[in-house]
UniProtKB/TrEMBL annotation:
Residues 12-168 form the MobA-like NTP transferase domain. The keyword Aminoacyl-tRNA synthetase does not apply. It holds the Pfam family NTP_transf_3. This is Molybdenum cofactor guanylyltransferase. It comes from Kocuria oceani.
Amino acid sequence: MGATDPAPVFHAVVLAGGRSSRLGGRPKAGLRQGRRTLVELTLDAVRGAAGIVVVGPPELAVPAGVLRAREDPPFSGPAAGIAAGLRALQALPEAPWTLVLACDMPGVARAVPLLLEAARSVPGTDGHVGVPPDGRRQPLAALYRSEALRAAYAGQDPADRSVFSFLRHLRLHDVTVAEDATADVDTWDDVRRHHLT
């Protein structure tokens, strides 16, 4: 595939439903970097998507045109969030790819173009996963073939299971990304390091 190939058509699942237990329950999605909340920064990163669903609590503000979903039961983990997002996206015309992003990575916009470029240039895979310099795959900064992701979840209860347990049979291609592209916010030290309020 060449540089003139069209950009991949994709849907986006933005996960914003965690407990934020190490932040005393303060929702991470509402933390601000400058004037933008973390969920707004993540939505900016996926503005090229054909359709977007935010999986999180009903009080979370999202723009018009963005679908909403909630993991079942609430707070049952990111795998359940992905399943809820996939169900919500069934209301839209199908897209070949599904981008999955957690909303607690302020720099994730740096990873998105690399994942989309991998979809254009690396054939024969079920998805492309962001991998920072420490070598740990980040399945919540990844672009999956929609059909393969749906098949991985079919007929299974995702509540309180790891995301990797659904991906183990997929052929995934590692995409090298900068450390700050997938650095997440879990603690108050992280909040300070990312200059969040």
